[in-house]
Amino acid sequence: MTGMSPAECRGAVQPRRWPPAFAGLLGLALAGCATTMAAPQPSPQPAPYVRTSPEPLVVIPPAGPPNSMRWLYGSGEAAALSIQAFNAFRDYALGAARTRPRDSMVLAADATLAAPRYVPCGNKPLAVVLDADETVLLNLGYEYHEARSGMPYNQQVWNRWERTGADRVSPVPGAVDALRALRQAGITIVFNTNRQASQAAATEAALAFAGVGPARHGETLFMSGDDDSGSRKDARRARIAERYCVLALAGDQLGDFSDLFGASTLSIPERRRLAAAGAMAQRWGNGWFLLPNPVYGSGVRGSFDDVFPQDRRWTDPGGEE
Amino acid sequence: MTGMSPAECRGAVQPRRWPPAFAGLLGLALAGCATTMAAPQPSPQPAPYVRTSPEPLVVIPPAGPPNSMRWLYGSGEAAALSIQAFNAFRDYALGAARTRPRDSMVLAADATLAAPRYVPCGNKPLAVVLDADETVLLNLGYEYHEARSGMPYNQQVWNRWERTGADRVSPVPGAVDALRALRQAGITIVFNTNRQASQAAATEAALAFAGVGPARHGETLFMSGDDDSGSRKDARRARIAERYCVLALAGDQLGDFSDLFGASTLSIPERRRLAAAGAMAQRWGNGWFLLPNPVYGSGVRGSFDDVFPQDRRWTDPGGEE
């Protein structure tokens, strides 16, 4: 799994469908059911990529946004953290522009995470590359809709969001000022997004509305559908690195930096260790910059066993309350 | 609301209690109920600080961890972002140590966020100040327990966690290396936590186990109960700043930097704007460093109306699916 837009798998909870004869009784019984209620017997954890059919018979919308959204979209903490990341991104790129590095921040085609090598800069014009969704844009309109509906991610709904929601986004805090400063320094801003090439004009409009544009498809905006790599971004990065000396990368998912983090052989804990160790650990905040996104994507995966190691389990010695 | 430990309010969802006669029928009807199910009629959003009584009659544990925990504890993305923040914290403090600043990073007692002034450094020994929970420590044991149980935050459970969970924590990625480098440079590491002074030895043990110690209560560890300010940290910061030239602050909540972010007159959107604008916006990553925490605390609050502004609402033009 590489860098995923909301158009890719989301780790959302799936509502269930009920036989019609049960629905009436269920409706009554579920009155007041809180969002933490589920079947009394321990249920196996749902496969995270199982899609429901389009028409569940009983779906009850949640009473409030999930904590991930409260934090990312509502908190001063997430705003501060995003500004912190964008200021660091800006300062790093401005510093690199002054010294004109030999190497870019785009991994070479035959590089590995254990032995990274980078595409050389040569005399190419200076640029930075950023993801769009939840890197420079907050998809407030879509996320509000999805959270309110209680429904899982739906590709068709997202497609309509891309087409019609350009004026319902906001910039990620810190993005506007940082990108303005980089443009003023003569650095080209390039976007590498998994939004769809077939709807490029709408994404150009969203970026402009958020104040981080302009972006032109094929010049400073590269999208899913530009090649046959789907949601994998290495091929687009390679194209961008042929034209530009890429000083820094910014994204909310590891696939915004390298497809190598999405190898299907990696378990969730292995992927976390890979990002945290070795040569690549030194890259974070030092050419590669993360923006936070606990709402969706490749960073929002896992069962209890994937997320919590066995040797850190704790039970309350006082007994359950 | 200032910097909150898990011992403070959490924005968790509350399970509901059912009359006994209903419980059997409900158990049957809830078979297979997914975690997004609630009452069929739109329910008013629950008051976020309402506590249930200690013994709900029907609580069904969730099938998997919430997205906030999957991201913070399981993802390579959160690990990378934490390393990015700690590397920046380290580099900033090392740089400040070389130049010996006139002013510390602790706001003066009469400062405002609009007109910040800082406690002068004088000739005081150099230090940095960090929060503990989800700043240098990941409370994996406690969070696993709480997530698995389906129960909301409970002070007594947390108290037992503080006492018995010292070897079920892990360090926040990046913390161990950063603090080691700062100690090697002669900078004192001071912790300012809302964990309880009455159980200080257990917190000293947790910090040591995580590899970010040592910490000594009253010298390099300041806690809730040290004074009568409760969970507000300004008074403890002032004490620390009397003894040390505080070069940088790190925390996961705005109260780790100033109690001014917790003014009860601030709405959730106002608090976010306050953190993102004006003089304080320049502080993030520049003396004040955020670590991510979408799991609990003052950054995890709000109704739909608090989190999603009206002018960014979007409805699906294609109709509900």
Produce a short descriptive summary:
Chain A is α/β, with parallel strands linked by helices and 321 residues long. Chain A has eleven helices and nine strands.
List the SSEs and their pairings.
2 copies of one chain form a homodimer.
Chain A: H1 20-29, H2 67-74, H3 76-99, E1 103-107, E2 118-120, E3 126-130, E4 137-138, H4 140-149, H5 155-164, E5 170-171, H6 175-184, E6 188-196, H7 200-210, E7 221-224, H8 234-243, E8 245-251, H9 268-276, H10 278-281, E9 288-290, H11 304-307
Features:
globular; alpha/beta; 321 residues; two-stranded antiparallel sheet; homodimer; five-stranded parallel beta sheet
Structure in words:
2 copies of one chain form a homodimer. The first copy, chain A, is of the alpha/beta class and 321 residues long. Chain A has helices at residues 20-29, 67-74, 76-99, 140-149, 155-164, 175-184, 200-210, 234-243, 268-276, 278-281, 304-307, and strands spanning 103-107, 118-120, 126-130, 137-138, 170-171, 188-196, 221-224, 245-251, 288-290. Chain A has a 5-stranded parallel β-sheet, with helices on both faces. In chain A, α7 (200-210) links the parallel β6 and β7. The model of chain A is unreliable at 11-51 (pLDDT under 50). At the A-B interface, α1, α2, α3, α4 and α5 of A face α1, α2, α3, α4 and α5 of B.
The percent range for helix content of chain A is 25-40%
pLDDT < 50 runs, ≥5 residues of chain A: 11-51
Q: What's the overall geometry of chain A?
A: globular
| Class based on secondary structure composition and strand pairing of chain A | alpha/beta
Strand order of the largest sheet of chain A: 7-6-3-8-9
